[in-house]
Hints:
- The chain has 151 residues and is of the alpha+beta class.
- Helix content is 19%, strand content 34%.
- The protein has helices at residues 26-42, 123-134; strands at 46-48, 58-63, 66-79, 82-86, 95-100, 103-109, 115-121, 146-148.
- Strand 2 (58-63) and strand 3 (66-79) form a beta hairpin.
- The longest helix is centred in the N-terminal third of the chain and has 17 residues, at 26-42.
- The chain starts with 25 loop residues before the first helix and ends with a strand.
- Residues 88-90, 130, 134 line the site of cobalt (II) ion (CO).
Amino acid sequence: MALRNIVKDGDPILRKKCREVTEFNERLNVLLDDMKETLVLANGVGLAAPQVGVLKRVAIVSVDDAFYELINPEIIETAGEEISPEGCLSLPGICGTVNRPYKVTVRAQDRFGKTFTARGEGLLARAFCHEIDHLDGILFEDKIIDYYEEA
Ligand code: CO
């Protein structure tokens, strides 16, 4: 495993639409393992492949004891909404409130290509939405309602 460099705001790669993953191979495993190591060190909640310079539909989410690897993820159901603060490892120093669904159901593939669904609410739902947005070149700052000054 190896740490990957996190791409920061202003890099055009963060604005590109990612390609679907069609090959579930060792290269994908290495990417996922590297992303996990990078996320843990950065103490983040989620990380999407474009944030490490890879334009593939791959994201990971880590909230409390739950850890998800999402390949080709799609939000298939949402319920409710919640306005809450958010941040992003690619946008250091920026924090603001964003309106997200309170509950989401995601359909994705695992690293072996097997399809599964995951449900989340609150922070977990927010993290799913935030990371899936990254795969379409959407950054949370596009959706900020109120900016927070960092202490
Ligand atoms: Co982000």
